[in-house]
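The following block was generated as part of the benchmark described in Methods. Ligand: nickel (II) ion.
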Amino acid sequence: MALLPILTAPDPRLKKKSKPVEAVDDDVRRLMDDMLETMYAAPGIGLAAPQVGELRRVIVLDIDREEVKTGPLFMANPEIIEASNEDVSYEEGCLSVPDHYSDVVRPAKVTVRYLDRDGKQQDMTCEGLLATCVQHEIDHLDGILFIDHISALKRNMILRKLLKARKEKERDEAEGKPAKDKAKDAEHAL
Ligand code: NI
């Protein structure tokens, strides 16, 4: 397994639509395993393939909370086949939008159809944080970030700050300064 570099906004690859995988073969399984390792190391609770520069419809998740413990979940070609009328708001973050958080409203309960790590089709009904996370990751496959769900004013402010932070990081690296500690808020890093 290998740790993959995570792209951060604004990166044009995060805005592209990913292609379905034809089959869950060894190559896709390797990508899934590398993504899971990368997600745990970040740390985060969900990661989509375009976040590591792979425009393929693959996501991984692992929610560990008192009310829900999923263990590692691998999904290829996930799609929402049913969504509740009831909505819920959750303060989302994203490994590709580091250190920024915002409330996003989404359906509270969804059923997702996907191919698992063995290529078997599964339907899973999700609620709570798992439902939020699945929808957030599927958005990534369509080039949508959580900041696309908030006001343009707030989105542009976050994008400006991300660019500024990236420039500071590049300058620090050029001057040989040690990297700043990352905020460790896995709960919100989807
Ligand atoms: Ni994300």
